[in-house]
Structure formats: structure tokens, C-alpha cells
Amino acid sequence: MTGFDHLLGGFAVALSWKGLLYCFIGCLWGTVVGVLPGLGPLAGMTLLLPLTFGLDPTIGIIMLTGIFYGAMYGGSTTSILVRIPGEAASVVTCIDGYEMARQGRAGPALMIAALGSFVGGTFSILGLMFIVPPLAKVMIAIGPSVEVVLILLALGVISVVSAGSRIKTATMVALGLALGTVGLDKLAGVARFTFGHAGLTGGLSFAALAIGLFGLSEILLNLERSEKIKAIAPKLKDLVPRWKDLRDSAPAVGRASVIGFVFGVIPGVSHVVSTFVSYALEKRLSRHPEEFGKGAIAGVAGPETANNAVTGTAMIPLLALGIPSIPATAILLSALTIHGVQPGPLLLTEHPEVFWGLVASMYIGNVILLILNLPLVGIFVNLLRIPYTQLVPIILIVSIIGVYSVNFSSIDIWIMVLSGVAGYVLRKFGYEMAPLLLAFVLGDRLEDNFRLALTMSGGSYATFADNTAIIVLVCALGLLMAVQIAAWVLGYRKSPADEA
Amino acid sequence: MSERSVHGQPDRRADAGTRQLPRAFSDRRGAMIVAGVLASVGAFLAWQASMLDLGDVHLPGPGFFPLLLGVVLVISGALIGINRWRLPEGDAVELGHRDVLIAIAALLAVPIVFEPLGAYVTLGLLGTVMLVLIARIRFPLAIVAAAAGMAVCWVFFQQLLGLRLPTGYLGAGLW
């Protein structure tokens, strides 16, 4: 079968009533969590993760991915209309989007954001479609030693690009790897750190840890915020942008699609970084940079396109290598693993319907979001009128049921609550949760492959330098670590506050 | 235009008095305590790992990797603590907000009573407590809302998704 035949097969899955229904649910829920402050794509995905257990893996992954890119769309709505970024990737949109809304131009801002998101999202799906199959063919021959170096490289890059202090990020990586060692050691068959609890033999529940670290800690942080903001009543009579708006935003959309596409493969916080880079580039290239911050349409089009262009390419490391580069794709990895589908080079040969179904659903999802976000924008904004304190019990109850239903064990509720409290305290002191979660997901594979590689080579570390590809990767890793250590020794800091 | 809190709700907390103000902690002391806890976790991990088969550098055993990570956590925790100790005092960190403490206390009770009382009773109680103490909804209304919420959960999770949640000692004979 050719790639085109597979794509047609993918569309057959995505256009089935189940595929369409769950894609719609994912997009709708994603938009809702994107709109609501404090509920980003991660919390949204982890909350619905347990609901996918009873579904076909392709349908489950279609729904979860819909939440991911739906949240990117939804985040722009509140950024523009009420100057509240629904999630981190929409922070930059607040600057010019809200200014446009204040000038009575909320409609064009929303329309351009939606169109930019559509173009960026579609561009990245094309990239995903054309890059993953050949990359997977190359990666299919890799052994455990290459996988070890790749995982270390991914964790190293996360430490570098992470927004907070380097040493704190490295500590979170170590803690995540340590938490990943809980449970049965697959190679020796020895239980580690289970303290006699049978419920811990399978390791700490990913869903419990993810909901605790991201969802619960975010809820606790939000409960203590009470700063006042000014809400603008949206005027959406004129959604159609002027010709000048389209002309001014078209180059920004084009450039941001490429920026988001390139940044998407970088592990860590690519969706956030890409928006800042896009905004800075548009300001620099603009003939009227003074308009930025005062309602420049390119300041909305660029970041919104970039954060959606990331969604497709962020999945390339997951689908081709089996290595999640951002927490959202770690959740997808977890969902697939629970269904017995291992993302990575063999995904395309063993489960082509999952990959092509996902690709096709992303095309459809982008159209659904375009239709959903413009006419229904008023309804989504009205969600903000529900007091957050009344939403909290609903979110908590759904989270607890979801977490419990994974293993039907109260231990998982303990893990969720304790990791939520720990996440809340750690975030208060500037520690980031994303590196911890990514390290937790990758930890057992790192250890298993490390020990397997040494066992296969008779204990020789030369296995980590036995071909050109791995030597290049090891050199990149060494360079990365050397730069980090040098920066730390020489006292270079991203900012004094960060390092504190 | 209207004045709203960050979550889009009217800010009713302003006149609630100092009772709701978060408790301010020294950033320096707090950061050092957190670093100390992380180092202690590392030390505990290393101690527990040392009781497992460590193998050797060429053929690591099940205790090798956790021991290594434990040592890394001890060192990084110590470095963060020392680094923070050398820097001057920063802005106070606010911990102990009333609503946060209530939420944590209520959540800590959930896993204790979840199986004995049953999922729906436990979560109904959690919802009531949160609605009364955090959302400040009148008690009778909160009970009705929680009961309605649990009925919706029962229909959705138990009937539609077929999820068998624990019914507890009380519900054992009823369900």
C-alpha cells in the first residue's frame, strides 16, 4: 500500500461516525479548557485520559489530540476578549489581540487568529505526514544504545530550553527519573520502592501523577489568585476582516507556520517559545513596529499561527522515535501504551491505522475548530461567567473518578493528591513540572535500554560509540552538557530570579 | 465593562477580611526547606537502592540506577540550597491560603474514605464541602447540587461507560 492509500484509510477511520464524534468531543473540550484559565491542554487531556480506555486506540488518540490543538484555538479567544491567556501559548496574543478588541475590532482579531491557526495547523500536519514515514524507516534499525543517547539528548534539551533555573530543571528531571524506577524492575524481576504494596508493582500511575502535577497543582494555585481584570464585552457583529487585515497578516501567517513547524520538534516548551519568536520577528520585519502593542494584526496572526503549527510537528518525535518532546505528547504516549500500541519506528508497520487515522483526524479537527470557534465564540466567552470556585468541585470529582478508574485502586488517588500538593509547593518555588513528567515517562526506557545495551555488549561502554550516528548524537549531548556546566560555573544565569 | 476576578467572577474576597489572606513565608527559608526535602528524598532513595543488587558499572543491577539518581538528587538539592542561602532575601512566598488549605484537607480525606464509604457518597461529600466552604454557596443548595452532580456521575460513569466504582459498606447491600 502506498502512503496515499494509507491516508485514505485514515480518512475512512476519521470520517466514521465514531471518529467524527470523538474528534468533535476532543475539539470542543479542548476549546473549553483553552478558554478557561487554569485548565490548559495538559489538564484537559489528563482529565479525559481514563475515558479513552474503553475506546479503540485510534479513536482514543483522535480525541486526545483534538483536545491538544483545540486548547490552542480556545486560548486565543480569552486572550483577545478578556486579556486572560487561557494557556501559556496564548500569552503573546494578549498584547495586540486585546488592544484590537478595545478598539472595537475583536471580530477581525478572532477571525485572523482562527484562520492563522487553521493554516499553521494544516501546515504542520503536512510536515507530520511527510516526515514521520521516512524518519521511522531510518529509526527502525536503531538499537538500545542509540535510544539511550536519544533519550538523554531529549532530556538535556529540555533542561536547556526550560524557562526556569537550569539546576532546578535538572533536579526535576532526576526526580522524574527516580519516580519512574518505582515498581517491578523488568530485567531482574525485582520490586523496587513498592514497600509491600501490590498496587505499586506496576509503577506509579501516569494519569495520577500527570493530573496531580498539572491539573491539581494548577487548581490550587488558581484558588489563591484574586487579581482584578477588566472584561470587554465582545462586539462580534463584524467577523469578516478587512482586505488590509488579510494583506497585513498573510506574510506573518506564512512565516509563523515555518517557525512553529521548526520549533515543534524541539523538546520542552516549543509551543510557548515559538509564539515569542514569531512576535519578535514580526515586530522586527514590520514597516510600522511602533504599532505593535497597540493592536497590530500581525501581532495576533503570527503567534496564533505559530502555536498551532507546533501541534503537528511536536508529534514527530513521539510517532517516529517514541520519545515525547512535550508533556502533551507524553500523555498521548501513555494513552497509546495503555492500549498496547508502542509509538516509535514500528508504529507505521504494526499499527498504520493509528498514525494515518490521527493525521486524517487532524485535518478534520482543524476544520471543526474553524467552524466551532467563530460562530460559538460568544458561548465560550460566557463560560468565564461561571465562578471558578464552582467549577473546581466538578473538575476534582471527574479527576478522582478518572484516576481511580485506571487501576481501580485508592493508591492512585493518594498519588494524585500528594503529587498535586507537591507540585503546588514546587511551582511556588520556581520548579517546573514538565521536565519531571517527561523524565518520568522516559525513565524506565532509559534504564532498560541502558542495561540492555551493556548486557548485549558484554559490559562494554564502547557500544555507545560504535557507529557514526551514535557518535554524532553523543557529541551533541557532550556539547550540550559542556555548555550547561560552563554557563553554570561561569555564573551565567538566565535571570537572577530564575536561578534563585 | 465590568470588574471581575481572574476567573471571570465578581471579586467577593476583598471584603472577606484578613482571614483569607495568604500567609507569607520567607522566600529564602522556604526555598532552602524545599531543597532540603529534595535532598532528603534523594538520600532516602539512595539508602533504599543500596539494599538492592547494585551490580557493577559494566553490568548494573536493579539498584544501580536509583542509587545514582538518589546521589544526583542529594547533590542538586544541596547546590540549590547553598545557592539560595548565598542570595539575599527575595519577595515573600504566599502559602496557606484558606481555600487552598480547605481543598488540600478535603482531598486528603478522599482516599481514606473512598472505598469504605463508596465513591458517590465520598465525592458527594467532597462536592458539598467545596461548594459551602470555597464557593460559599448555602448549605441546602450545596447538598442539592452535590446530589444532582452525583446522579449525573452515576448515569454517565456507571450506566453509560460501565465503570464500576466502589459502593462502600453502606451501599454494598443496596446496589
Keywords:
heterodimer, A: 500 residues, mainly alpha, two-stranded antiparallel sheet, 3 strands, 71% helix, 2% strand, B: 175 residues, flat, disordered N terminus
Descriptive overview:
The complex is a heterodimer of chains A (500) and B (175). Chain A has helices at residues 3-14, 17-35, 41-48, 57-81, 91-102, 106-139, 144-161, 166-180, 206-223, 243-264, 270-285, 298-313, 316-321, 327-338, 347-350, 352-373, 377-382, 388-407, 410-428, 434-456, 468-489, 496-499, and strands spanning 183-185, 190-192, 228-231. With 500 residues, chain A is an all-alpha fold. Chain A has a two-stranded antiparallel ribbon with strand order 1-2. In chain A, helix 7 runs antiparallel to helix 8 (166-180), helix 9 runs antiparallel to helix 20 (434-456) and helix 14 packs across helix 20 (434-456). Chain A starts with a helix and ends with a helix. Mean pLDDT of chain A is 81; it is low at 494-500. The longest helix of chain B has 24 residues, at 27-50. In chain B, 62% of the residues lie in helices and 6% in strands. In chain B, strands 2-3 form a two-stranded antiparallel sheet. Chain B has 175 residues and is mainly α. Classes of the chains: A mainly alpha (500), B mainly alpha (175). At the A-B interface, helix 8, helix 9, strand 3, helix 18 and helix 19 of A face strand 1, helix 1, helix 2, strand 3 and helix 3 of B.
